[in-house]
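Hello Y.,

Per our agreement to keep a running log of every chain we model this quarter, I'm adding this entry. I've kept the format consistent with earlier entries: sequence first, then predicted structure.
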Amino acid sequence: MKKLLIAAISLFTIGLNAQQLEKSLLWKISGNGIKEPSYIFGTIHVTCDATLDEHVIKALNDTKQLYLELDMDDPAMKAGMMGGMMMKDGVTLDSLATTEDLAVLDTFITKELGIPLKMMNRFKPSMISMSLMPKYMDCPMQSFEDELMKVTHEQKEEVYGLETLEEQLAVFDDISYEEQMNELIKTAKDGIEKDKAEFDKMQEVYRTKDLNAIMKFMADSENKMYGDNADVLLNNRNKNWIPKIEETAKQTPTFFGVGAAHLGGKEGVIMLLRKKGYKVEAVK
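Predicted structure for the entry above:
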């Protein structure tokens, strides 16, 4: 579920103002007081092939710790997950839609997840949408975060997070539950194949390593919830990460792994770091 959560937040939330960047998912950070370079890598959190290429392996070898969006090997994460998935103030799914739409959604969720809708009545609609992601895949689910952590553990180095689970889950309280529910009902009415086709296309675009193409693809997506809430889901989080990235990189050579959606655009991590005086260059 952690992988699905990060996937939905990071892959579907893209700023609409693209900044032309070189084709690369791996970027070196240096200058402005950084003694040894750090690296930042744009991931796709749910994929069929999370093989790390030689440039990423070298960057991991040349750094001394790993920062992901979340500290994903923190045992306390599971305990905090359930509470953050629930809607606040007693809001329930059956208060967010008509009887007719609820019936359609119940049939769909029961078929796809094997759980009647009433068992998920207090879940944030976006959390249910994330639970559907394995249905979009024709392969065993892999994660770049898992692969990065595997190498880090082999190197006997530590894994940290740029934000807490509570901070990440809280973004879905800042988006109207009604808007989330409307997108979930749309998925139920359209059927899983439509979202699956879009997910497959996203995988193809990611493999081009073109951050500009990723942004354009997401700007054209029919799911507007994430694009319409880019400040909450993407831009504000990027800005919050910058001081932590700066402090960390100046103290220790670090490998940062975040969703590729966070890198591009005028309010993406690359441009924000450059504005602060750092040299951020593509590793090809």
